[in-house]
Amino acid sequence: MATSATSVDILSSDETPQSAAISPARLIGRRFLRNRLAIGGSVVLFLLYMSALFADFIAPIPYTDVHEDYVFVPPQLPRFRDEHGTFHLRPFVYGLESELDMDTFRFVYEEIKDAKYPIKFFVKGYEYKLFGLIPFDRHLYGVDEPGVFYLLGSDDLGHDMVARVFMGARISLTIGLVGVILTIIFGATLGTISGFYGGGLDTLIQRVIEFLMSFPAIPLWAALAAAMPANWSPLQRFFAISVILSLVEWTGLARQVRAKVLSYREMEYTLAARAAGTSDSRIIFRHMLPNAFSHIIVVATLAIPGMILAETALSFLGLGIQPPQTSWGALLKQAQNVSVLLQQPWLLIPAFFVIAAVLTFNFVGDGLRDAVDPYSL
Amino acid sequence: MQRFIISRFLYMLVTMFFVSIVGFVIINLPPGTYMDVYRAQLEAQGTRTTERQLEAIVRQYGLDQPVYVQYWKWVSGFVRGDFGRSFAYNKDVSELVWERLTLTMVISISTLLVTWLIAIPIGVYSATHQYQASDHFFTTIGMVGLSIPNFLLALIFMVIAAMVFDQSVGGLFSPEYEDAPWDVAKLWDLLKHLWIPVLVVGTSGTAGLIRMMRGNLLDVLKIAYITSARAKGLPERRVILVHAVRNAIHPLVMILGTSLPQIISGATIVSMVLSLPTTGPLYFNALLQQDMYLAGTFLVFLAGLLVIGNFLADILLIWVDPRIRYT
Questions:
Q1: DSSP string, B30-72
Q2: Facing residues of A141 across strands?
Q3: b/e burial code for range B209-227 (CB count within 10 A of at least 16 → b)
């Protein structure tokens, strides 16, 4: 508190603010705010995570609900004009009638023009727990029974794709975070040990890293995921997958941290700390890691998209998240087949979410990297 | 030099040993013994298992003996060319491995070549046109390329091919060549199919390589010898292409060892989508069916080839860059 007060004083007393009075964190913040792509990326990421958090609220029906009468319904767009051309302020959808096409043996959906279902907002629906705690039954949108409203279409079991995409986001977006936290723990610890103590331990750790890097990652991950016992609970699977992903990912971070620690080891302040009789752990935790922290955050941010892609790939192959749980990769699994894709192109919608998440994480990570680099302009 | 190669070779052997350990651990990771799986498989096929058959298997793999004996039986088979048996295919693994492994390598190495051929010129162009519209264009394209999962790109390719050209793009051979013996016509047919997987697998690698080449070249261009080369009146083309690019490429040779695993990693999953007759589909099917002997052996093979590749890359690097000290 005291320091921020003095810096404010300096700024107000002196008309031209001096950069020396700005804390490094604020400098980083300023540089970050200048990067438009990074700002845009942060906004999109925030929205994605919020939609994952409020997935239950957004979903009009539970994501596990099976509707045999509404298999492969194409996305229904809300309508403002009815068949007579009359304008309705409240958007509506028509009722659907399915018919089996005897040539292709697929259901074709016909709109029933005299059954209009207005779209209502903040409707009462199925009960769920907001944030896993507060019982709640309101939903963002919905239509009255017996109408249905599949904004993003439905899949082979009549699941609502909106519900599935956002429930899937919960897993796809958090698995990267959990994995990255594990990566930071492994990578920072081993990297610090490697750089700080050097010698045989350093050689050993470096060899292990080289060894892990020489494995093709996806086949290795897939093998470990396939070896998971089938009777594990979804939560166990989720954590096992993030552990598996971080098992390879930590290597890159460890190398970078090691390089940083190596250079800090030779700095005067480390020598001074040593001369003052400071213990190793204090030097590491008080002097070195705080210095490397911004760097670690950047590397970690840039590692998240790789993890999201990896989870997507594993689940896509059927080795990752298993039903009834779902993730973006598990959703894309249905889209493996070209003929399915040509007939039900909306099954590819989760892919846009994957790309959006990965792209924005890359933008944010790039922005952070430029921002923490004291030599960038 | 000789000493370096020998010590590097020994190091390679040690790595191979650890690779085989990882493979063995993965084979033994799933709960239940090899026997249970085998029996279940046979019964699923409608074959009744006799005690005799099972005993023979136990003896063959040393399943009643300690782990290190089992490991030894498995790993010594590698030297003899016996890689165990695949349950799902009911064939020896060695029958399944070779042709597929060759095709995987063909795809991976062509991908590597293509990524380099595309990425280096673009990287050089981006660096010499820093912050111009064209540089931003390539940066954005690169970012998007990095963000689209490989398998998704493969799917998009297939859909476009099916919709626009009305043809399927799966596979590596036309039907008439699938089982044909190797000749020039078959090779040509392979080349005609190869470009799609190569392009799909190569996208993300190309994007990364462009960024790297651009960064390296920008760093090199700041060094004084470039200024002196310009000062003595060399044409700009020569300064860039002969003096700067040569030095900027070396770090790329160094990452050769890590980029090949990434390419193979991408190729396995892409070939699953494009249903290419490479190791990918076989490997993932083996995993899905818990056919762990086949999967473990494949993994060891892939990693083993990479270890050898790394060894060769290291020697290549010494040969390319005389400044590197070998210790």
A1: SSS-HHHHHHHHHHHTTPPPPHHHHHHHHHHHTTTS-HHHHHH
A2: A121
A3: bbbbbbebbbebbeeeebe
Q: Which two tokens stand for residue B324?
A: 């590197």
ipTM for the predicted complex: 0.78
Q: Any chain A CB within 8 A of the CB of B292?
A: yes
What is the nearest CA distance from A319 to chain B, expressed in angstroms? 7
Residue among B149, B296, B303 whose CB faces A354 most closely:
B149
pLDDT at A362 over 70: yes
**Residue A219 and residue B292: Cβ atoms within 8 Å?**
no
The band of A10, judged by pLDDT with boundaries at 50, 70 and 90, is: very low
CA A310 – CA A206 distance, rounded (Å): 24
Is the Cβ pair A215, B26 closer than 8 Å?
A: no
Please answer whether residues A250 and B314 qualify as being in contact, where contact means their C-beta atoms are separated by less than 8 angstroms.
no
Q: A111 Cβ partners below 8 Å, 6+ apart? A: A94, A95, A96, A97
- pLDDT, one tens digit per residue, over A248-291 is 888 888 888 888 888 888 888 888 988 998 888 888 888 888 88
pLDDT at A3: 43
**Spatial separation of the C-alpha atoms in residues B160 and A283, rounded to whole Å:** 58
DSSP B272-313: HHTT-SSHHHHHHHHHHTT-HHHHHHHHHHHHHHHHHHHHHH
Amino acid present at B16: M
- Tell me, rounded to whole angstroms, the distance of Cα A98 from its chain centroid: 37
Q: Of the candidates A223, A335, A358, which has its C-beta nearest B26's C-beta?
A: A223
Task: Provide CB contacts within 8 A for A4, sequence distance 6+.
Answer: none
Give the Cα separation of B230 and B134 in Å (integer). Answer: 24
At A171 the three-state DSSP class reads: helix
Does residue A18 contact residue A7 with C-beta atoms inside 8 Å? no
- Phi first, then psi, for residue B15 (nearest 5°) are -60, -45
**Which residues of B, range 190-249, sit inside 8 Å of A by Cβ?**
none
Percent of chain A with pLDDT over 70: 93
Cα–Cα distance, A5 to B326 (Å, whole number): 56
3-state secondary structure of B204: helix
Amino acid at A147: G
Closest Cα partner for A59 from A154, A162, A173, A169? Answer: A162
Helix H or strand E segment including A99: strand A87-101
Q: How many other CB atoms are there within 10 angstroms of residue B295's CB atom?
A: 28
Q: Report chain A residues whose CB lies below 8 A from the CB of B168.
A: 338
- Tokens linked to B115: 């990524």
Report CA dihedral (B45, B50, B52, B57) to the nearest 10 degrees.
30
Beta bridge partners of A138: A124
Alpha carbons B82 and B73: distance in angstroms, whole number:
10
Encoding tokens for residue B196?
A: 């799609």
Distance CA A129, CA A117 (A): 27
* 3-state class percentages of chain B: helix first, strand second, coil last, to nearest 5: 80, 0, 20
Is A92 in contact with A118 (CB distance < 8 Å)?
yes
Strands (E), A102-205: 106-118, 120-130, 134-142
Does an H or E element contain A204, and which? helix A199-213
d(CA B86, CA B220): 52
Q: Taking each helix axis from N to C terminus, what angle separates A36-53 and A161-197, rounded to the nearest 10 degrees? A: 120
- Band (pLDDT 50/70/90 cuts) for residue A46 is very high
